[in-house]
Design goal:
Number of domains: 1
Strand content: 15-25%
CATH class: Mainly Beta
Number of strands: 13
CATH topology: Jelly Rolls
Helix content: 25-40%
Order of helices and strands: HEEHEHHEEHHHEEEEEEHEEHHH
Largest sheet: 9 strands, antiparallel
Shape: globular
Number of helices: 11
Bound molecules: fe (ii) ion
Radius of gyration: 19 Å
CATH superfamily: B-lactam Antibiotic, Isopenicillin N Synthase, Chain
Structural class: alpha+beta
C-alpha cells in the first residue's frame, strides 16, 4: 500500500537536498564523497511549457475511434507502431494506451497524415515536446553532471530522445484493474513526467525497497534511469516507479525520455564507483543501443505490445534480471 503524501511532504522526503536553478530543482548533494547524499535522483521541475492535455485527450479519442487514422499514423513507423492500444483486448497488460513519438519518428510522418491529425492535436503535442527539450534537457543534464561530478554531455551529443503520451483510460479490457503501469525503472539517463493533475504515479523510496510514495498529480517529476546509474558509477540512482489506476478515472501524462547516444558503451565514466558493476558493464560489452533493445522487449511484454514472434527472444522479464546484468549479482 502506498503512503499518500502532500506535495510539500514529498519535497521534504524525497528531495532533502535541493539545487535550485532558474528553471529546475534537482535532488542533489554537495559531494560525491558520501554516496547516501547522491541517492534519490528525483527532481521537481517547474516547466516553462505546460502539456496541451486538451489536445492530448483529443488525439487519443480520435485515434481510438478511427482505426484508419491510427493505421495511417502507425504506418510512419511500421516496426513498432506509434499508437499502442493492446489494453483494449489484453486485461493483464498495463491498462493504458500510448502514443510513442520521437524527433526521428516525427520526421517519418507523411504530410497528409500530419495534416489530417493537426486539428486533433498532433502539432501541439510535438511543439510541446520540442519546447520542453529546448528549455530543460541541457539544464537537467548539466545538473545531473554536477551532482555526480561527471560530465554527461560527452555521451549526449546526439540528443537521443523519445516522447510518450499515456492515456490511463477506464475503457480498457480490465476496467477495474488498478494496474496502469507496472513497476519498472526507465532505461535511459532521465525522464521528465508531466501529469494532468490526477494522482496515480508512485515512486519506490530509494532507500526503502517496497515502500511506494504517491506523487501529487500536479507535480512534474524528473527521474533517473539505468543509464544514469551506470555512467555515474552509481552516484545517481535509477528510480523504480509505477502508475496505479483509479477505476473509472481517466488520467493523462506526457513523458520525455533522454538517453545517451546509441553507440555509447554503457560503463562508468569514473573509476571511483559507489557500487560494484558486472564484468560485462566494466568491460564495456554493453552499448546503449543493445541495452535499449533488451529493455524495450521487456516493456512491450508488460504493455502487451510484444509481437508473438518476439516473445521467446527476450531474456529479461523483471527488474531483478536487469540488475543482475548491471551489477552481476
Ligand atoms: Fe517509466
Amino acid at each position: 500500500m502506498a503512503s499518500p503524501i502532500a506535495a510539500q511532504a514529498f519535497r521534504q522526503r524525497l528531495a532533502p537536498n535541493l539545487i535550485k536553478t532558474s528553471k529546475t530543482t534537482l535532488t542533489s548533494a554537495k559531494s560525491h564523497a558520501n554516496p547516501e547524499l547522491l541517492h534519490g535522483a528525483i527532481a521537481l521541475l517547474n516547466p516553462t511549457v505546460q502539456p496541451p492535455f486538451k489536445a492530448i485527450r483529443h488525439l487519443f479519442d480520435h485515434l481510438r475511434a478511427n482505426p484508419t487514422a491510427a493505421s495511417a499514423l502507425n504506418n510512419a513507423y511500421p516496426k513498432r507502431g506509434i499508437f499502442k492500444s493492446a489494453a483494449i483486448k489484453n486485461g493483464i497488460a498495463d491498462q493504458k494506451f500510448t502514443i510513442d513519438l520521437s524527433p526521428a519518428r516525427d520526421s517519418l510522418i507523411s504530410e497528409a497524415t500530419r495534416a489530417s491529425l493537426a486539428s486533433y492535436g498532433l502539432n501541439d503535442v510535438i511543439s510541446f515536446f520540442n519546447n520542453t527539450a529546448e528549455n530543460h534537457v541541457s539544464t537537467i543534464l548539466s545538473q545531473l553532471g554536477k551532482v555526480s561530478s561527471i560530465d554527461l554531455s560527452q555521451v549526449h551529443k546526439d540528443l537521443n530522445m523519445n516522447f510518450r503520451l499515456c492515456d490511463y483510460n477506464p475503457l480498457t479490457a480490465n476496467p477495474t484493474s488498478s494496474n496502469g503501469c507496472g513497476e519498472h525503472t526507465d532505461y535511459g539517463t532521465f525522464s521528465i513526467i508531466f501529469q494532468d493533475g490526477t494522482p496515480g504515479l508512485e515512486i519506490e523510496a530509494p532507500h526503502a525497497p517496497g515502500t511506494w510514495i504517491e506523487i501529487p498529480g500536479d507535480a512534474t517529476v524528473v527521474l533517473a534511469g539505468w543509464c544514469a546509474f551506470i555512467l555515474t558509477g552509481g552516484r545517481v540512482c535509477a528510480v523504480r516507479h509505477r502508475v496505479r489506476r483509479i477505476p473509472g478515472v481517466r488520467r493523462l501524462s506526457a513523458v520525455l525520455f533522454v538517453a545517451p547516444d546509441l553507440e555509447v558503451k554503457l560503463k562508468p565514466l569514473t573509476e571511483f564507483t559507489n557500487v560494484e558493476f558486472s564484468k560485462e558493464i566494466i568491460g564495456g560489452e554493453v552499448n546503449v543501443s543493445w541495452f535499449k533493445d533488451v529493455m524495450g522487449k521487456r516493456w512491450r511484454r508488460r504493455e502487451g505490445n510484444l509481437e508473438v514472434a518476439e516473445r521467446d527472444e527476450g531474456i529479461f522479464s523483471q527488474d531483478d534480471e536487469i540488475r543482475r546484468l548491471v551489477l552481476g549479482a
